[in-house]
Amino acid sequence: MEHYFTNNENLKSEIRCINFSFDAYNFVFKSDNGVFSKNKIDYASLFLVKTFLKFNKKKVNSVLDIGCGYGFIGVTLSKILKVHVDMSDINKRAIHLCKMNIEENKVDAEVVESNIYEKINNKYDLIITNPPTHAGKKILIEFLNGGLERLNKDGELWFVISKDKGAKSIKEELEKNCKCEKVAQSKGFWVLFAKN
Questions:
Q1: Angle 164-170-174 from CA coordinates, rounded to 5°
Q2: What is the pLDDT of residues 61-87, one digit of tens each?
């Protein structure tokens, strides 16, 4: 079975545009076959962004959107927070789309192809992700623990995860090494943040 984090060079390209508005901001996202949530803005990703913007009270100067897909989270936050955002994904098609979406929406962002944190060398005030839960718990824990290692002092890792995909056990796992809190829940999804 093909997953959205699998590079399938033979998959036919059918680029489509997704229009999205948030408050006074309008966005256009190009999407395609072979990427996560290709036809619409993913509910969990949108819930994560809205929750972060509602509850975060700190100024963030550096942001990483890890497992960025076509760039919805990173592009949206870059425009609204007026901050540079680094983004990364393992899927080549997602990287290509993300570059187009950075340009299309005129935001200060950069995207790199990376297997999780392989090519990520900086530290950040905010690491935010809708991690690929279908990749399995081992990869999920790598996403989250790797993020904690790359936070600046007082930096935070924000993520969204389905209750059905082990949100409670992931929270308990992280709490062994850091502070982790559930901020909000909706339609079976939990938004959590963790900090060292």
A1: 165
A2: 999 999 999 999 999 999 999 999 999
